[in-house]
Amino acid sequence: MNVAVSWYQKDEWEKMKALSVDAETLDDDYESCKKNANSLIASLKENGVVAQKVSVNAEKLLAWCQEQGRPLNGGARSAYAVHILQQRHEKSARGKT
Length: 97
Hints:
By secondary structure, the chain is α+β, with helices and mostly antiparallel strands. It contains 4 helices and 2 strands.
């Protein structure tokens, strides 16, 4: 099984946090976010799940949320990562035909 894990560069994480309606639920700083994401990836791997990092651009995430008519929150961040991963796989599949 593969799952998408949102991955941020420091400046994108800070932008995303500032734009999120649930900023209070996010880690206090980027280093904590990165540490927790790496722990999640390791835990998933231990359970036989392949976690694929999905680099997220905060402004593209916000635009996607607006197109979808949803607030930028945890559910939207997860759904966006899945959306990007699906696009990546579709593009890869088209390239193989």
